[in-house]
């Protein structure tokens, strides 16, 4: 009976580690996509130190989970106590790091409010100054998502506009036939004169929130699932470690 129980534990351990292996592969792929994606996210990530650090942390965590899942599978199948102990210690460190990151994200979530982004935009935005990373990033976001400001064009009324333009709306808020920097303007002159027909009127905060709402819930569910799998994997690792003679 004890041998059957140990055998069952071994295959359960292998199964859980296989899921960790797949989760690590997904995180690794997502991290690579965020860093190299050509549709504007690369510029956003590079411009924000927090996002830049987060992307590489996600990449490193994915690679580590990928490796540990592989080692855990090998340790379970070969019944190697050294590999199992190594796996347990590292998966425990990863589990605690992920838990700490989730708690910190919850505590500092107020830094992602509409008011915070509006304040930062009005303080640092320099319109068509592409040498300024903050302004270039905002221009890329507004062009990519066909939006304007955080709440709408009114965010730019307090920001000095160009002498030849009677409108406070920046060029990046003008409608384009194709939403990219290479896309032709529908009517740039009328847009800069203040004609709302040729301006993107919706704020970027709402547009981006609606675009990523599904993915945020999916990422949250995936994170909870990964934490649960890691917890069970640690329990099985210890049970298997103690059961091996």
TrEMBL record:
It comes from the Eukaryota. GO terms for cellular component: plasma membrane. It is a multi-pass membrane protein. PROSITE patterns: TM4_1. InterPro entries: Tetraspanin/Peripherin, Tetraspanin_animals, Tetraspanin_CS, Tetraspanin_EC2_sf. The keyword Transmembrane applies. It is found in: Membrane. The chain crosses the membrane at residues 12-36, 56-77, 84-108, 215-241. The keyword Lyase does not apply. Keywords: Glycoprotein, Membrane, Transmembrane, Transmembrane helix. PANTHER family: TETRASPANIN, TETRASPANIN-18. Belongs to the tetraspanin (TM4SF) family. This is Tetraspanin. It comes from Cisticola juncidis. The lineage of its organism: Eukaryota, Metazoa, Chordata, Craniata, Vertebrata. The gene is Tspan18_1.
